[in-house]
Amino acid sequence: MSAAEGPLVVGVDTSTQSTKALVVDAATGEVVASGQAPHTVSSGAGRESDPRQWWDALREALHQCGDAAREAAAVSIGGQQHGLVTLDGHGQPVRPALLWNDVRSAPQARRLTEELGGAKFWADRTGSVPAASFTVTKWAWLAENEPEALRATKSVRLPHDYLTERLTGEGTTDRGDASGTGWWASATEAYDEEILAHVGLPPALLPRVVRPGEVAGTVRDSHDLPFAKGTLVAPGTGDNAAAALGLGLRPGTPVLSLGTSGTVYAVAKQRPADPTGTVAGFADAHGDWLPLACTLNCTLAVDRVAALLGLDREAVEPTAHLTLLPYLDGERTPNLPNASGLLHGLRHDTTAGQLLQAAYDGAVHSLLGALGLVLDEDADRSAPLLLIGGGARGTAWQQTVSRLSGRPVQVPEAKELVALGAAAQAAGLLTGEDPAAVARRWNTARGPVLDAVERDDATLSRIAGVLSDAAPLLERSTDAR
């Protein structure tokens, strides 16, 4: 480990499948140590995880960081959004957390939208129209299906809140993650009493929303982690808001993130409110807004297709006739929570490589379709797309995004941007800087730019046509798992 020029900070990304920890030099942005440990996600009727796994994974990831973690002056937790963590009076999980990609609450999402004034009411009030991923719909599902768990719940948290509270002993969240619950009003930046009353959630069960730049607390004791008692703890935030911090995003710069889910987003100065529900009007972690569109099926779905075919994920071949809508977990964009995958155009001469390319095309089509809605009207449509996430370094992903977007594509060299954003947030506590400015000082967005190529309008039109024709079938699909 090289000698640090400034104090050390820890940034954490507790994602769907693992927890990653980075120890970062606050002065230079150099990552001096890192660690990672996996989680288990159920594959039964829904998508659930025991929150205690996240703590165990955090402990293991920090242990891998060695002595560097013990020197940290501040820590911040970034985490997967929307997950419903229900705790009893002793702070223990009542049941496994319902994760963002658990779509069992789709009926509750539809009902809540109808019962409280329709889509425009929700968009105006919260910035977003409820979807099956949102926390408020999961709470409504729990009330209908597991009332005994509801009665046992004494506090409700998001995944990053759970870890922050175990560090500090205080129930806190931030505006970025709170904005993805469906019960935080973006217009007033406070919990919405009408929505909470409607779903039967007492406000006292929710964490305090910490302001950007405010200290959420301090490490209350050493637990079994390497932090010293009194180490500063930043508010933390949701994964997309953390990645936006990690890139030091300025308003109007588009981001396409390729992870278990796929997202497109940009920082905006104006509060978004899309009544179609395509764009979620999230807050960011430092006072602006983060309009975002999300797909449930991205790298995991494409990797599953590759595995079924026995192919390396890069073994793609061009196709001009095959369409695959890879909605293996249902889908959020378009809003088809009960859909399954759909293949169209299969022929005797179709190759496995063409089928795999069609999976890439289908996943990217959904993301690019929402990009125009995410960006402001005056945004520079020729500016490079920042391509991040686990899939961003894959050649097939890069070439598919480039071909279907027709835009230059920049791939930042920095890895683990969610954890880096959390680290920038922790560094901001020490320096008083905006965390995005910290990340720009660290030059985290630096990376090669792929030149624009002619957009493949034929493929985009073919996929759109199949989706339009198949929409009635997809809407009737049921989850057969």
Rounded Rg: 21 Å
Share in helix: 25-40%
Number of DSSP helical runs: 16
Low-pLDDT residue intervals, each spanning 5 or more residues: none
Into which percentage range does the β-strand content fall?
15-25%
Shape: globular
The separation of the N and C termini measures 48 Å
Major β-sheet, in short? Answer: 7 strands, mixed
Q: How many β-strands, per DSSP?
A: 24
Q: Give the integer mean of the pLDDT values.
A: 93
Helix vs. strand class: alpha/beta
Keywords:
globular; alpha/beta; 481 residues; 7-stranded mixed beta sheet
Notes on the protein architecture:
It contains 16 helices and 24 strands. α3 (106-115) packs across α4 (118-126). It has helices spanning 51-64, 67-70, 106-115, 118-126, 135-145, 147-152, 159-168, 175-178, 193-199, 239-247, 299-309, 352-374, 395-405, 417-431, 435-442, 457-476; strands at 8-14, 18-25, 31-38, 48-49, 72-79, 85-87, 97-98, 155-157, 172-174, 184-185, 190-191, 208-210, 217-218, 232-233, 237-238, 255-258, 262-265, 280-283, 289-295, 323-325, 342-344, 385-388, 409-410, 449-450. 36% of the residues lie in helices and 19% in strands. Strands 1, 2, 3, 5, 13, 14 and 15 form a seven-stranded mixed sheet that branches. A seven-stranded mixed sheet has the order 18-19-17-16-22-23-24, with helices on both faces. The model has no long low-confidence stretch (mean pLDDT 93). It has 481 residues and is an alpha/beta fold. The longest helix is centred in the last third of the chain and has 23 residues, at 352-374. The termini are far apart. A hairpin with a 3-residue loop joins β1 and β2 (18-25).
